[in-house]
User: Fold these one by one.
Assistant:
Number 1:
Amino acid sequence: MTDRPSLCRSALDSLNDHMLGPAWRDPRIGIVHLGIGNFHRAHEAVYTEEAMLAAGGDWGICGVTLQGDVGKRDALMAQDGLYSVVERGPEGVRVTVIRALKEVLAMPHDRARLFELLVDENVRIVSLTVTEKGYCRDTRTGDVDLSHEGITHDLAHPDKPSTVPGILTAALGQRRDAGTPPFTVLSCDNLSHNGAALKQAVASYARVLDEELADWIDSHVAFPSTMVDRIVPSTTDAERDAALSALNFHDAVPVPCEPFRQWVIEDRFPAGRPAWERVGAQLVDDVMPFEVAKLRMLNGTHSTLAYLSMLAGFSTIDEAIGHPPLRTLVHAMMTEEIAPTLDVPPSFDVLAYRDALLARYANTALKHRTAQIAMDGSQKIPPRLLATIEARMNAGQSIERLTLAVAAWLVFLRGHADDGTRYEINDPMAARLSADVPTDPEQLIETMLSVKEVFPPELANHDVFRRQLVQAVRLIQHGALQAIAIERG
Ligand code: CS2
């Protein structure tokens, strides 16, 4: 395997056209992307590559890892930023090489280079996939969390920022001082109203340092919202093997993904953007209906499947959805509890959307690990499940299945499956949430509902919710598989 050469720009000539698309100019960097994980590489980077092939433009990407992951930077840079996307679907495997990624930086090591780019006039978009926790927000107010360790650091050293609000504020301040038009800030995370949420986090951070700058950000910087969708698991050796046999080059950092992709973008880019609409992105005035539908239908049921699976022992989503009672539960949850809360345009067929999701979950080629989705529950549960529960309770409607999902998360926090197998709790609030989780259901709910960062007080104090949560925990404690079946019975 290692006797084959590694992917690099000079190797491209020997690849077939179908792996590359038409001739390639060498674009300058026009996008800095914070959070260069697999998702970005299989989503925005692919759309951007194709948009440049269709319509040109200097929209090369500089990807930044904010966690100091020099290993990732070096692996990608050793391949001149090239990598392959390995699409896995019922029809088989398709490998494409992506060239849009021109440079990779690792913070905090490459801060000087990052700022050189962030103040460069040709950089007109800074996009982000930093996951919910990267926004450093106080979820109760939406403002930046002033007690967050990274934020405290950045406020004390505003010229050496490491957090998203810190980096964006410093860069925007430098552009304002230099008279350079601001870049557009494009959140691509699964957050409700992601553009507005990011704007509030950044502006409230800036306000602590400089009122005028905060006002300038408020009035001059565009933060369009987006809905992003593609299921992108972590890389395994199977993708390295698939890339090698398709390309005849060694790729250390390929990305697996499903064939499906969707991107709905609020069209507000004062400094310009790639022609994403030419390659399937939907540019709209209002992203909200799409975003809420995706968060509640897809991400909500993903989390439900993940926590019930961690307890029941299903390690991938296709395995979980292949268990008939679990499929029935998720189907009913979408049809009866989630879909009625959605306010979508008449052209949006919610039931067809549900069926398409179930088909995507059943993709046996993808091997999307439930443990990957189970990460960061404290950040994911509120927009994915609690918002739906609140909407239904306000309308006096039942919340049975949604509550079962939240209960599964709480029981999951005990750190072991029903058969005793232990797993790690990967969550920024793990220390607080998973230390000594009470065994008594009443006590468990009492303790967890007092976590205000997760459960808004109106919800936490609601009798019906409390009661149903206790009941659901009791059921699940007798075994997740049984709970799934009893609940449906
Ligand atoms: C998943 C998402 O890991 C998770 O929490 O629910 O990453 C999901 O696969 C994507 O949002 C799909 O677009």
Number 2:
Amino acid sequence: MSKIIVLMGAPGAGKGTQARLLQERLSLPQISTGDMFRAIVKTETPLAEELRPLLTLGRLVPDELTMRVVRERTAQPDCRAGYILDGFPRTTAQAGMLEGLAAEQGHALLAVLVDVPYDILEKRMTGRRNCPVCGEIYNVYFKPPARDEVCDLHPEVRLVRRADDNAETAKDRVATFERDTRPLLEYYEKSGRLRRVDGARDVEAIYADVQKAVSGE
Ligand code: AP5
């Protein structure tokens, strides 16, 4: 049966890194609500004005809007064989909506937690840099680009740092995760749909376990 793979984890845990590998290797689309919201914020629209302060401060976007964005994106033909959700659901309301969506679309749902201790999350967030062209994810401490602040694949492009990747906002984002999102782990665990992966290792070791969890090994 086709699957929705829900990648879960605290901010900076490595969901995006693993989702990009799954996308590349399993040919399923990666749907990152954070990436979609950051794209909206770059536009000159009233919606961008509304979302910009929320993203900058690491506060959650209202459920109704978030669910609409996910519903529209997952209705695209490339999602018919399943997809990877990165950063959704984050609240009980979003999880409830996703159950309905999975049933309508005929997909099973599996949640995979990338579990990382809090003491390493801050460096993962504050050290993160992204290529604005291809989205490649770097880290000045753990995965630096070959040349300082420049993408390996797009040497003409300077890497960017996210507005919410500073130490203070990082703490608030972790607190939001604890309050609003952690309860969902228990929700998926109780229904036997949660797999936990140790996310404090190197990227490929984590991927091997994520891939096993996804294929039911
Ligand atoms: P979002 O973009 O989803 O941010 P997040 O959940 O805070 O997660 P991150 O993107 O920070 O981290 P990640 O786990 O993807 O880690 P990554 O792979 O990049 O959301 C941003 C904002 O959008 C939210 O605050 C909210 O405002 C809004 N939003 C989004 N979804 C929403 C929703 N559903 N409802 C409401 N609002 C929503 O890795 C991090 C760093 O670590 C990188 O530098 C990477 O190179 C490095 N790294 C990764 N893996 C390893 C490893 N194994 N070893 C060493 N370094 C590693």
Number 3:
Amino acid sequence: MLNNNYRLYQSELDMDLGLKGKNVLVTGATGGIGLVTVRKFIEEGAFVIAHYHHNTAEAERLQHEYSLSILTLGADLSDEIQVQEMFTTISQKVGKIDILVCNAGIWPKTDETVAQMSFKRWKRTQAVNLDSVFLCCRAFFHQLQTQIRESANIILIGSTAAIFGEAGHLDYSASKAALTYGFTKTLKNEIVKYARLGRVNTICPGWVKTPMSEDALADTKGVKKVLQTIPMRKIAQAEDIALSILSLASDVLSGHISGEILTVAGGMEGRILFSPTEIDLDAAF
Ligand code: NAD
């Protein structure tokens, strides 16, 4: 059974990533990838605004554990008013945001072809995965307009579904493709109007072991099928994605990288590479 406490490593990074004192907003901070990302940023000396949706208990735990390095804020990010209120609270309590990590998202559990998909499901997925990112980026840009500075950074979390598509999940694939391509390639040109060295990049994870993928990864037949498309024949841990987020967030490591799509998927390329007998599930996790 997965929970949010798996493999929360202490930072083993020896170099200064230049994240000390940075204010970082992580959305979906109590989810699998979000939680590890929050911990990594705090280990690097950043102050984290940890957004959560329903998981109040985990948010309270984080607030208690990191008290002076964190502010937890709840909001449904598909709701314009709630996003506006969240950013107003951040302005009042923290001041400016340096780094925005748009990580919150949903992946509807059932496979539905386009012929089967209800308009309701389509709209809900776009609202949570896409509208929320529009609203957060817009609010961040409003802040940048009034607080012109040298650097600012947005990291979006897309998916390999944006790149290869995902039969049964057109809603998810389309929402992530919009972020990965439309948002990244447009906002990298807009952010520099307010932050000369501002950067926008997207990370596209493949399969990651988190609560979102828990049910799908419990299906060993399905996992084997997925592993057949991945040269490294393993599933990512949340930490793999969190460390890539930190790397792109760091001006020291990635100061000249903007408008890029970083796929973190063990080399996945969307076609079958191995026969089922070449897959060893014990070596996969
Ligand atoms: P998760 O389900 O553990 O976390 C998702 C987070 O999004 C949760 O904290 C949840 O509360 C939040 N969220 C959902 N609806 C929301 C709403 N309406 N308003 C605000 N927040 C909301 O999943 P995860 O695997 O950690 O996913 C993080 C990101 O990574 C997502 O964008 C997901 O699409 C992406 N991703 C995950 C995988 C994977 O295999 N797990 C693969 C590719 C991409």
Number 4:
Amino acid sequence: MQGLAGRVALVTGAGRGIGRAICLGYGAAGAKVAVSARSTDELASVVQDIRAAGGTAEAFPADLSDPAAPASLLESVAATLGTVEVLVNNAGVGSSSDPKPLVEFDDEFWKLTLEVNLNAPYRLTKLALPPMIAAGWGRVITVASINSRMGSLHGAAYAASKHGVLGLMRTAAMETATLGVTVNCICPGPVRTLMNDKRIEYDADRLGRALEEHESGLTPIGGRLEPDDIAPMAVYLASDAGRMITGQAYNICGGISMA
Ligand code: NAP
């Protein structure tokens, strides 16, 4: 597979979990990696690890619940590393932060989830696409979810945002297919991250199961995925090898969905 030598890649939600693994993969493939999230200590750690492995990375703190953040983030990256050629929409608010049945759902949590999981990818993608189209080369990769295809019990905002972002990305793919830009989603199942730790604790408690027993039965293959199970797909989709793939949504879910 060809690498990403010299490509400028912006990864949101990059400080830990899946985003961190994608950043390390991009750094190893030769990209200049713009590492973004709110937690500056986590960003510094990712940047340090990429540089220690011989790669190039810079931290760009941003809070994507602020509607003004996408524009200033893209401008900062362009001024420091160059125009973004690979955009990874990965930052997310999980269903686990405030799980409730729909009839009890917190309206502020609904707004926050939609802002970070759907509106921020909309704004970032809308702003990142014109220079990609002008250059005749670009990649947009969105970390959606298996909950882009199925509901999330007590996670209405999460499932709605993840279904929405899949539709958004499929539309962007249709509009850019002839222009050298590909747009795809990755749909993970349960991955061992801070977000999912909280979710499986909630579900195990709700079901009255021991945590280990609950975790072992989460996927047909068995147990949870690791962030490193997701990152190679993000590297592949960003590479020239992925040039004929657009409008797709790849489940990496341990066999939860076989559709
Ligand atoms: P995680 O370890 O909790 O990471 C979430 C990342 O998003 C963090 O870097 C966090 O950084 C960032 N983030 C959250 N709110 C933000 C905001 N307002 N502004 C900017 N950044 C923000 O969770 P993860 O599991 O790796 O999640 C990454 C993506 O994978 C999400 O889109 C999630 O929905 C998706 N996903 C995860 C799973 C799973 O089982 N883990 C399954 C399917 C899909 P700060 O808090 O420092 O801002």
